[in-house]
Amino acid sequence: MPSADHDLGPQHLADPSRPVRREPTDRSPEHAEPSRFIPHVQGLRAIAVLAVVLYHFWPARFSGGYVGVDVFFVISGFLITAHLMRELTATGTVRLGQFWGRRARRLLPASLLVLLFCALVAMSPYLTPTSALPNEVREILASTFYVENWYLALNSADYLNHGGDPTTVQHYWSLSLEEQFYVMWPLIMLLAAWVAVKWFRGSRRRAVIIALAAVTAISFVFCVVFTMTDPAPAYFVTFGRMWQFGVGAMVALVPALRIRNAVGSFLLGWAGIAVLVFVIFRFDGQTPFPGYAAALPTLGAAAVIAASNTERWWYPTRLLALRPAQFVGDISYSLYLWHWPLIIIAPSVPFWGLTIYHRVALLGICFILAWLTKRFVEDPARGWKVLTSRPARVTLWASLAAMLAVAGTAGLAWAVNAPAYTDGVRAIQELREDPPECFGAAVVLDTACEGTDFGETILPAPGFAGVDRPTDEQCFVQLNDARPVSCEFGSDAADAPRIALIGDSHAYQLLSTFQRMADENGWHLVTYFKGACPWNTTPLSTPGAFGAACTEWRDGVRAQLAERDLDAVFTAAIATTPYSSAGYDSVQDAAVAGYRDAWGEVLDRGIPVVTVVDNPVWETDPNKCLRTRGMAECDGPRSELMVADDPLRDAATGVAGVTLLDFTDVFCGDETCAPVVGGANVYRDQDHLTVTFADTLAPWYVKALQDALTAGVARAG
């Protein structure tokens, strides 16, 4: 996942090339705003926010809706640069304090209100799982001080934390980036103007255009290269996005780019909208983004802004000025702020579901909250005389005080729940060490446990399942890390059976269980894990650096396995991995062939392979349901949660030396799959098992491996 957008409020703009009269320095900066309104830019704002919101509500239908963020970056670059250039032209400088104060009054009240709401939600164990609290508080703090994009960039390699449920404030990454733009952009423009006057006696405007064009070009190159080499942080880092602001800035600063000719404006405007519609429906999570792909929505947005002619009703400039588009544009900032936390919180609300009716109702609630926030928070705060009638520093100090208050509330949320968090973690450890009889999978697999009823028991508790995960994160490489990192556990005896555990995060979820198995059975365990990269020779369909890193990791693992003396290999993988079908009739055939090819290299050496059919994958973390509803209400349809044709099953069928474990009947009945089995909480997020439940499968893992070790495989002659 990913994504966000932001708003600057209604834009009152005159032609940025027209000088404006100098305002007295003792007047409120609100009076410095030019008065001409540009309706079609406000309508473009509506397209952008709807793209993102609909993408978050229905990601499969609006798979490229995240590009709304890029549209907002272009709009902001256009509006802010135009405003700064007019002031710089008229006065020779930019009153930074007043500019930043105006931005603070415009953006912070609504932003901090939503953050305060999220902090209060975090305080409630009914709405926020206690296991998620530490990360929730950290991100609220990062968002409050507008560094959320850097927090996500620095932690984007942490697949374990961000592979599950995101926080309620993850969307603040783009707001953080834009605030950083507000700080840097006027400084760049002032520096360029000062250099032009001081050293070259040239035009301030020309110097600013050259400086911003250079920043734009360098940022674009950086974005493309960084996306290819390290796409996860590239999505969030500030300099990788500055070129999108720069494109909007060029439209503002270069009059020739604003097309007033009737035919040219008509064609340019509709072409821009067509590009935006195309990327909203055709881009998806596999598109290498931002990179060069971001040029399409960026240039599409710039084209709509540049189309300035409004002569005919069928021109995009006129249609985007219609009242519905203007209304959505007016509330777009608050709509963006509210929609994401409500989406995250809704599944935890009692009696709320995920049906189409619930989603539509929630979307309506988002619009209502956005309008109320615009009407009673955004608009009044911009003209609050206690701030506008005083020097800008009063606004800035008041902003800092408000931010500290929100941060304090987030800290209080942690302080209130910290004892429960500590107790919950301790309870999980005790449960692992001394589970009840016939607990978990034994209810289904052990005939002696038939009929055992745990009632409404759920262990670990739904609020703590998220922390019930392996702790040896150093053994798990992610994203573009291609190092074949291995970890070793268990017996060091020379004659100890040597078992390898290899695969993606669905193999890593078994690590703690296999560590215990190795210790109890005198095995030596060696592991190789890479997120979203199964042990398979078929390339992923994922383009760019991630797919290349997966291939490189596999090559490294293959080379290390060739040098290791192993007695058995266990592998697992998520069934929904996107494989390339090149050279095969279907993706399924490609995946099956890749598994068999990878296994063949160890089978040929007489090393048996044990594998397992993948567990169900839920649409959202079932613990959200379990915290507010009875267990029976949280079951999911088997047809939607289980992949009908797991390539691992097909690959293992009929291959000598390969043992296939299939626990589907443990997870699911004939029609539904359950999130709780034998009193054990099965999942820590939407598709990864808790260590507690994986431990209940240990006897069957052990038996399969012992049988494989005993039988062996006829060694190649």
From TrEMBL:
Residues 18-34 have a biased composition (Basic and acidic residues). Residues 485-699 form the SGNH domain. InterPro entries: Acyl_transf_3_dom (IPR002656), Acyltransferase_3 (IPR050879), SGNH (IPR043968). Pfam families: Acyl_transf_3 (PF01757), SGNH (PF19040). Its EC number is 2.3.1.-. Residues 42-373 form the Acyltransferase domain. GO terms for molecular function: acyltransferase activity. The chain crosses the membrane at residues 64-85, 106-127, 182-200, 207-228, 234-254, 266-283, 289-308, 320-339, 351-373, 394-416. Residues 1-34 are annotated as: Disordered. It comes from the Bacteria. Keywords: Acyltransferase, Membrane, Transferase, Transmembrane, Transmembrane helix. This is Acyltransferase family protein. It comes from Microbacterium terregens.
